[in-house]
Design goal:
- There is one protein chain.
- The chain has two domains: 1-32; 34-177, no CATH class.
- It is 26% helix and 33% strand.
- It has three helices and eleven strands, in the order αβββαβββββαβββ.
- A hairpin with a 5-residue loop joins β4 (82-89) and β5 (95-101).
- The longest helix is centred in the first third of the chain and has 30 residues, at 3-32.
- The radius of gyration is 19 Å and the shape is globular.
- It starts with a helix and ends in a 9-residue tail after the last strand.
């Protein structure tokens, strides 16, 4: 076997292992993560190139962006490029923005950490779109909350959409994504 073929084979094996690890990690988060709902603001229910989807923003993200803007000039309050927000969880399971969780700080009872990143100068907390099968837009029109699974470190994944009464719209993680 030539050195070139061995390197190609090793690269392919590495890609398979990394992909497999990502799938297993996401599956364990979906099964074992804590459920939290974030209030959403649907924007655009259609993309001609990508099919049907709902563009998303989150109330929590808006509040965090406002807090970040207020502290932008204060040296000791600069936000790291990656970090965790502190979400207070209300009696309905809805996450409410309650500040930035500093490195080494413990998460108080009744709160969850929620990972964020700053990209292109803007704060992002989660996916900005929910994709669904073509022709299903009306199913998701009443969406008020995104349903997330969150791990103890603040890692999260969007698994579904809920209406104002927390009724599931469509299904958790659509069939085509499984």
């Amino acid at each position: 076997m030539s050195r070139h073929a061995a390197l190609v084979g090793l690269g392919l094996l590495l890609a398979i292992v990394i992909s497999g690890w990502g799938i297993v990690s996401s599956e364990s988060l979906i099964v074992g993560g804590e459920t939290v709902f974030l209030e959403i603001a649907p924007v655009d229910p259609r993309s001609l190139l990508q099919g049907d989807y709902m563009a998303l923003d989150y109330v929590v993200a808006r509040e965090a962006r406002e807090a970040m803007d207020r502290t932008a000039d204060e040296r000791d309050l600069r936000w790291p490029a990656r970090g965790r927000l502190l979400l207070r969880i209300d009696e309905r399971g809805v996450g409410q923005y309650d500040g930035l969780l500093r490195e080494g700080e413990a998460v108080p009872e009744g709160y969850l950490p929620f990972a964020y990143r700053i990209r292109g100068g803007g704060l992002e907390i989660a996916t900005n779109a929910w994709f669904f099968e073509e022709g299903q837009a009306e199913v998701y029109e009443p969406a008020e909350y995104g349903e997330f699974r969150v791990d103890e470190d603040g890692g999260h994944i969007l698994v579904g959409m809920r209406d104002a009464d927390f009724q599931l719209l469509g299904e958790l993680i659509p069939r085509w994504m499984r």
